[in-house]
Amino acid sequence: MSKHPVGLLCVLLLAITLVGPSLLAEDKAKSVEVKAGDLTLQLPASWKASEPTSRLRLAQFAIPAVGGDKLDGEMVVYFFGGSGGGVDANLRRWIGQFQAKGRKAITLAGNAEQGQYVLADVKGTYNMPVGPPIQRKTRPTPGSRMLAVVLNIKGKGNYFLKLTGPEKTVTAASKALRTAIGASADKEKPYKLEN
Length: 195
Hints:
The protein is α+β, with helices and mostly antiparallel strands.
């Protein structure tokens, strides 16, 4: 241990001050700004945009698998012209896309740069849609996680963001999802669904 802990602390603080801004600039360089209607997202460059597979989707992105996960994650943005059902109805529907046995779900609320939002965080066996949506076919996919957001942009309506995939991949992407809308997990509060 150094005989001068205060001096060592000052050196560390100076290093953080000098290196910090360049790290922020580096993070910014690794992200891209994406417009989806009136919504502006700051997404990691590694999230690959593709042509929406449904007319209901405003945008969609593949999120590279991490930690040995075999499947990529997916983030989808929906906008229904200001409609799309109530917040609680959507949260319940999303939670219901996971099998009840072993399901863990929490709901949170927060304020983002672009508006207020509510988020459902669900883990368990996801009934992943397969094939054309009209067929309503699903495949049980254990070890999944979903982060689903209803973001209200004042004067524009609700935007719906849904990040799904293997639990490790979604967990690794959770901070980036919040960053995308200018939100922070440490400022979120529990949200109680109405009966």
